[in-house]
Design goal:
mainly beta, binds FE2/S2 (inorganic) cluster, 69 residues, 2 helices
Length: 69
């Protein structure tokens, strides 16, 4: 983690949403599998049902196929 990334990390809330995705909300740094980094105030929803067509992001498919919560 470089200095710029360290400055961006402050606080974040991670919550498992009932029958849905993982929500990450706050001021944090996020690096995806391609190495792309976003930082600052943001709110992300990570798929945990495996059905999203835009993984790792939730696209709402969990409503149709369900999540074993
Ligand atoms: S949790 Fe929403 S699409 Fe998978």
């Amino acid at each position: 983690m470089n200095d710029e990334e360290k400055k961006a990390v402050t606080t974040a809330e991670v919550r498992i949403l009932k029958d849905g995705p993982i929500m990450i909300k706050g001021n944090f740094t996020f690096r995806d599998s391609s190495g792309k980094i976003t930082h600052g105030e943001q709110e992300l929803y990570i798929c945990r049902c495996g059905g999203s067509s835009s993984k790792p992001w939730c696209d709402g498919t969990h409503v149709k196929i369900g999540v074993a919560n």
